């Protein structure tokens, strides 16, 4: 934990990195829309739907924040169930593609360009926060967690689905990964360069996440490192070759 905090402070001095990350994801927005559209039409839709709803209250419409929403996979899915969902992403082109998908699906979704590490909402705004494949890309994940907890209502639920992508990419590269089959050579090179710079790729997760959320006063903090076995029953265009974990926490 001490090492993680030291690295977090060092990264405060490198704001240009975030712009580089945003430009990289901007270059992938078109292929991301295609992947999310296909995923919404696949068995993954139902599997993720069952997973998310199993952790959320079913007796009322919730105010939900989808952090790092990309093209809105979680946002659209939860909005279809009557929840008031706001999706935020650092990349404007991702949000534009997400709005296109929402229109195509006839779903009312509030999608905004916003920094996941600095969500511009009042304290105690949301009943739940969901996020997928985001935390491992953040220069300052501890600060992001602080902000997410801030905007959660007391008793609100955080569901974070992630994997140690950057650590595996450092070791193995991207060749042959189904999730990266649409990347150009230049995109793949930039992807690897960014991954190598991220401090979080050197931390032990999800242990680090559980530890810091407990330090922030959250209760019922748990990690399930086998959730991927339930969500990806066989290899597909949406599966990744790394163990996916779920981190769940409740704001005290």
Automatic annotation (TrEMBL):
Q: Which top-level group of life is the source organism from?
A: Bacteria
Q: Name one GO molecular function term.
A: S-adenosylmethionine-dependent methyltransferase activity
Boundaries of every Methyltransferase type domain copy: 65-159
Is Coiled coil included in the keywords of this UniProt record? no
To which species is this protein native? Candidatus Fusicatenibacter merdavium
Q: What's the protein name? A: Methyltransferase domain-containing protein
Q: What is the lineage of its organism?
A: Bacteria, Bacillati, Bacillota, Clostridia, Lachnospirales
Kindly indicate where the leader peptide sits in this chain: none
Give UniProt keywords alphabetically. Answer: Methyltransferase, Transferase
Cytoplasm among the record's keywords?
Answer: no
Q: Name one GO biological process term.
A: methylation
């Amino acid at each position: 934990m001490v090492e993680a905090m030291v690295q977090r402070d060092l990264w405060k001095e490198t704001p240009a990195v975030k712009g580089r990350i945003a430009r990289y994801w901007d270059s992938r927005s078109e292929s991301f829309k295609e992947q999310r559209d296909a995923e919404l039409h696949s068995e993954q839709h139902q599997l993720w739907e069952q997973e998310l709803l199993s952790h959320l209250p079913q007796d009322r419409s919730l105010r939900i924040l989808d952090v790092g929403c990309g093209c809105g996979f979680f946002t659209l899915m939860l909005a279809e169930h009557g929840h008031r969902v706001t999706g935020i992403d650092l990349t404007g082109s991702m949000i534009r593609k997400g709005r296109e998908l929402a229109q195509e699906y006839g779903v009312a979704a509030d999608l905004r360009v916003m920094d996941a590490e600095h969500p511009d909402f009042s304290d105690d705004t949301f009943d739940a926060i969901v996020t997928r494949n985001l935390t491992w890309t953040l220069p300052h994940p501890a600060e992001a967690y602080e902000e997410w907890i801030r905007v959660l209502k007391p008793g609100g639920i955080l569901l974070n689905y992630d994997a140690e992508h950057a650590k595996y990419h450092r070791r193995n590269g991207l060749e042959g990964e189904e999730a990266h089959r649409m990347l150009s050579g230049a995109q793949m090179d930039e992807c690897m360069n960014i991954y190598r710079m991220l401090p979080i790729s050197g931390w032990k997760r999800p242990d680090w996440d559980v530890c810091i959320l407990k330090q922030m006063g959250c209760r019922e903090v748990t990690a399930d490192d086998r959730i991927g076995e339930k969500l990806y029953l066989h290899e597909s265009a949406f599966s990744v070759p790394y163990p996916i974990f779920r981190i769940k926490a409740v704001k005290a």
